[in-house]
Amino acid sequence: MERVNRTRFAVLGVLSTGPQSGYDVKKFCEEVLAYFWRESYGQIYPLLRTLEAEGLIRKEKSELAEGDRRVAFVLTDSGRKELSEWLSGPVADQPPRNELLLKVFFSNLIGPAAVIPQVAAHEAAQQQLRQVLMGVLFSLDSEMDGDPQMPYWKMTVRLGLRICDARIEWCKETLKELQTIKEKSSMPSAAAMLE
């Protein structure tokens, strides 16, 4: 099966929101997409050159912010077409990679005391992420009302919130279970008590 470079579509998607410099593309990936999609920033600038050489984007002088004139990249019709074709295609299933679950899975080798702080830290991080996502949702409602992209962006944020809620619930259940295992393993056995 042919390997698809999804980074190109992430960058084309970012540019579909409007003209952006390479720095702005990087910043958008870091501040907006990073909640559900990570990009290697070392790939962005070379990819912009490749997309330009392929005729999918072009440079234009643009005022990106008040008084800030620099070169921005914009989608060409070919770039918009390629992005639309990819968006319309099937989603490739990607196997998950979750280091915490990998550690929990093999924690019988070290016991519950070592993994409890890791699960607790994950729960705290998910609580914090949930607060950030609630803020994003509020911002979308208050700052982007009427923007045609807003409903789609809110859909991704709502899934992020549900994932956070599920992970928080899992952490609470897992911490209780790990504590029970820890308490049972620290109890003296009946045989040891008879000695």
Q: Counting H and I runs of at least 4 residues, what is the number of helices?
A: 8
Secondary-structure class: mainly alpha
User: What is the arithmetic mean of pLDDT?
Assistant: 88
Proportion of helical residues: 55-70%
Q: List the helices and strands in order.
A: HHHEEHHHHH
Overall domain count: 2
In whole angstroms, the N-to-C terminal distance is 65 Å
Number of strands: 2
What percent of residues are in strands?
5-15%
Describe this structure in words.
- The longest helix has 37 residues, at 150-186.
- The chain has 195 residues and is mainly α.
- The radius of gyration is 23 Å and the shape is elongated.
- The protein is built from 8 helices and 2 strands.
- It folds into 2 domains: 6-88, Orthogonal Bundle (Arc Repressor Mutant, subunit A); 99-187.
- The mean pLDDT is 88.
- Strand 1 and strand 2 (68-75) form a beta hairpin.
- The protein has helices at 6-15, 22-31, 41-53, 77-88, 99-105, 112-143, 150-186, 190-194, and strands at residues 57-65, 68-75.
- Helix 6 (112-143) runs antiparallel to helix 7.
- It has a two-stranded antiparallel ribbon with strand order 1-2.
- Helix content is 65%, strand content 9%.
Strand and helix layout:
Elements: H1 6-15, H2 22-31, H3 41-53, E1 57-65, E2 68-75, H4 77-88, H5 99-105, H6 112-143, H7 150-186, H8 190-194
In short:
With 195 residues, the protein is mostly helical. The chain has helices at 6-15, 22-31, 41-53, 77-88, 99-105, 112-143, 150-186, 190-194; strands at residues 57-65, 68-75.
Features:
2 strands; 9% strand; two-stranded antiparallel ribbon; Arc Repressor Mutant, subunit A; 8 helices; 195 residues
